[in-house]
Amino acid sequence: MAARIGTFLLLVCLAIVYSGGERYFYLISRTLEYGFDLLMIACIVLVVSTSGIRMVAVLDALPYLGFVVAYTVWGLVVSPVQWLVASSAVSAVLLNVLLFAGIFVGVLDRRRLATLAYLIQLAVLVNVALVLWEAVDYTLTRSLANFAHTAYYVLERPGGLWVQPNDAAIALLFGALLSFWARGPKAVIWLARAGSAVAIFLTASRTGMYPLILCAGIFGAMKVITSRWDGRLWMAAVGLGGAAMIVGGALLVFLEGEAIGLWISTNYDLTRFLDLGQSLRVPSDPSRTAAAQIWFAKALDGPWGGSGIYSFQGSLSLEGAHDMYIMVWGETGVLSLIAYLGVLIAGVLHALSGAIPSRDRVGVLTLWAVYLIVGLTTHTQFSSVVGIIVIALLYRLPGVLRDRHFQARIEETLEQSRFA
To answer: CB under 8 Å to 272, separation ≥6 — which residues?
Structure first.
C-alpha cells in the first residue's frame, strides 16, 4: 500500500515538473521548491524500500547519466569562467539524476507508464487552456513571463507555463506522442491530442509543427495497416479525401484566391510555418541554419577539448547554437561529441532489441526519431525538464514494454528445437 501511494505521488510530481508548473514554486517560495524536491526524493526512497525493485534496471540509465556527468566535469575543467558557471552546471547534473531516478523508480510496468502518460495529458490540457487564453489576451503572456523573470517570450506566440514558445511546442509535441501509452477516458486523451495540435499551431513553432505532421503520418499509416477495414473501404476513404482536396483547391484558386492569399500573408502563424527558408528573419535574429553555421565554424576553429560548458548557449549579442550536437562538440570537444552520439546510438539499439510488441516498438522508435530531430533545433536537452524526462523514458521504455511472456515462448521454442 505504501509503495502504491509513493509511486502515484511520484508520478504526479513528474507530471507537474513536465507541465512547467514546478518552476513557479521557486518564485513563490524557496521553501515550497525545496519541499517539492524533498517530496520527490522521499517518494523514490519509499518505493525503493517497500516494493523490492530490481536495481539492475537502473543500469540502462548509467550510460547517459555517465556521459552527462563527464560532459559537465570536462566542460568545467576547460571553462575559462568556472566560478561563474559551476553552480548552474552542478544543479543541471542533480536535476538529471533526480528526474532519471523518478522515471526509473516510478515507471515500473505498463500500468504505471499508462498512469504517467495520462497525467501528462492532463498537464498538457492545462497548458492548452493557457495558450488559448494567451492567444486572445497578450497581457497574460507578459504576466507569466514577468512572474517567471524571463525575457524569452514573444507576445504573438503564447507558451503556457513554459512561457518560451519553442519550449512549449516541444513539450506539447512529446506530450502528444506519449499519449500513445496513456490509459483513461478516451475523450480526455483525444482532447489533449487535438489541443496539442492547436496549441502548437498557436506557438508558431516549426520545431513542433513539422515533426507533428510527420508523426501523424506515421501513426496514421500504422492505423491503416492494423485496421479491420477491408481494401474497398480504404479505397473509398482515400478517394473521398482526394476529391475533397481537389474541390477545396479549386475553390481557393478560382473563387477566393486573392482573399485567401491575403489572409495567409497577414496570419503570423501560417506565414512562419510556410516560410521554410526562414527568409523573414533579420540579421539580429538569425535563422536556425544561419546560427548553426556560425557556431559550427566556432567549434571547428575552437580548442580540441572544447571552449567550456555553456560557451555555446548564446549571449546577449548572439543566439546560441540551437543544435545539441554542435553545442556538445564546441563546449567539450570532438571526442565528447563522438561519445554522445555513441550513447544515443546505444539507446536506439536498445529499443530495437528484445521481444517488444511491434506496435510499441514503432512508438518508441518514433519518439527516438523526434528526440534526435529536435536536437538539431535546440541546445537545452541537458537542462530542460521536458528533455530530461523524455530521454529518461526513452531509456526506460524498452525494459517496461518487453513482452516477457512472448520472450519465454521464444526461449521455450528454441529449447524444443535444440533437443529435437
So the answer is: 204, 206, 280
> What's the pTM?
0.85
Closest of 361, 346, 375, 350 to residue 406, by C-alpha: 361
Cell of 257: 484566391
Residue 290, classified by CB atoms within 10 Å of its CB into exposed (0-12), middle (13-18) or buried (19+), is middle
Which three cell numbers, joined as nine digits, stand for 382?
Answer: 541537458
Angle between helices 165-178 and 206-226 (to 10 degrees): 10
Question: Which residues 6+ apart lie within 8 Å of 263 measured at CB?
Answer: none
Compare 320 and 17 and report the one with higher pLDDT. Answer: 17
Buried b (16+ CB within 10 A) or exposed e, 375-399: bebbbbbbbbbbbbbbbbbbbbbbb
What Rg, from alpha-carbon coordinates, does the chain have?
23
3-state DSSP assignment of residue 157: strand
pLDDT average, residue stretch 54-62: 78
Distance of alpha carbon 24 from alpha carbon 146, whole angstroms: 11
Residue 283 has pLDDT above 70, yes or no: no
- The DSSP symbol for 302 reads S
Q: Grid coordinates in use for 159?
A: 507558451
| The C-alpha cell that represents 63 in the structure block | 550510460
Whether residue 114 contacts residue 182, with contact meaning beta carbons closer than 8 Å, is answered with: yes
pLDDT tens column, 142-158? 888 887 777 777 777 88
CB 199 within 8 A of CB 127: yes
Domain residue limits, the chain: 1-52, 228-276
Q: In whole angstroms, give the CA distance from residue 1 to residue 6.
A: 9
Residue 121 predicted with pLDDT over 60? yes
